[in-house]
Fold:
Amino acid sequence: MSRFKASRRHFLTTVALASASIALLSFPAFAEMLPPSRTSGVPVPPGQIDKAVAALDGIVEDIKARSGVPGIAVAVVRGGETAYAKGFGMRDAKGDLPVTPDTVFQLASLSKSVGATAVARQVSRGVVSWDSRMQDLLPWFSLSDPAVSERLTIGDLYSHRSGLPDHAGDDLEDLGFDRRTILERLRLQPLSPFRTSYAYTNFGLTTAAEAVAEASGMAWSDLVQEAVFEPLGMTDTSARFDDFMARENRATPHARTADGFAALYQREPDAQSPAGGISSTIEDMAKWMAMVLADGGDLIRPEALQPAISPQSFSSRPHSPDERAGFYGYGFGVGTDPSGRVVLSHSGAFILGSATYFALIPSLDVGIIVLSNAAPVGAVEAIGASFTDMVQTGSVTRDWFSGYEALFAGLYTPLGETAGMPFPKAAAAPPTVSYCIGRYSHPYFGTVEVREDETGGLVLLAGPEPEAFALLPWDGAMMVFDIETENAPAGSRSAATFSGGSDEAEALEIELFIMNGPAQFKRI
Structure:
């Protein structure tokens, strides 16, 4: 056979494989035509995916009842179409407004994956590349190591391999600082090895998105709207918190309490919008999933999207010989299921009251999105895993909820050495009020103030629009205050220790304001 005929035959075979149905490719005879790297060890016979979709009502109702989550919405995309979309339970605090397919939920960290497709759209358009240097796009941004700042790219930040610590900047967001301030102060954070370490960093990724928006000449919320939401017809989706709050049919967040879930807080994530600030419905997210499963469809060139959905860094290393590794792309989790199929996924969570999850199986052209209005307890992941299990094996092979519930339990362990402890009975007397009051400064956390309150006690004021924390005597110069934020679960308690000087304290150490250990504030 001539070289021309051989290459033509290879081309025609490739086209035939691309246009063949997913169901047929699942059978061994057809799977043999695929490259070894695309071969699954578990075939999916006709009708199996239909059975998985039909089982969803029961799966969701069971896990909803066991978890106590008040409201859940689920959609399935298959072959470019929405095959299932349904709401379960209630979306409001009173429990009299049902969840529907059009209920708007806060996506939390699913925003990373959605936002990554906006970046991929700009890569398609030639505005940026995944390897564009941050210093070229955002010259005012830097990290603590100039050599790292010089080489840092959009992709480094979207794959969490910049060296920034886990969740760097989230503590400043908890105190109310704005996006620009938080991004500027990331330069004060210590760094792990560049491109060889992984640490999940909301504000690192947000910086990369900000750079893409700058290169595009518009705000991030406008860019993602123009690049993704509008062309896909995602009319109930936004990257602005005010838009979410303006929706009539929106889900009320529910925090976890000792008595179940309760509507206590409303998370406002605009500061980290590219990482956690998008809100949407399952109907809109089904359109987005269909686009991703279609290799970008008519919106994104495949070669611009593929890096985002390919492994770029280790997200979880195996701890035993039989454990599968986890990988992270650019805003997407990339893994391998027990069947041997590639699965693209992401979880999202607000401790203050939201849990979300999606999973896409490209080889089967099927995906599921699960949104809820309750703090994370593993319910959304369990629903997704039960469905993808049935899709690939024909049954639910284990109790996925009990497994995921155990993984999420640690999120609710209160922080602080004195958390949950009784106040000491034989404590030394606290310092005088005059010794403690004053203003104290830290380069990362900014200025805090200690004042006397109307009862003669002390209060700590922290943040740009100061939040007040009542300081309670513990033992001598050590005082404590209760704190509950997105990153400090209910029951957390921080020490605040005054030191130095005979007439007035020269320093204040705050245990749960952490920067290379408890933060040391100097009197100013």
Observations:
- The longest strand covers residues 81-89.
- Residues 31 and 125 are 35 Å apart (CA to CA).
- The first helix runs from residue 3 to 19.
- DSSP finds 20 helices and 20 strands in the chain.
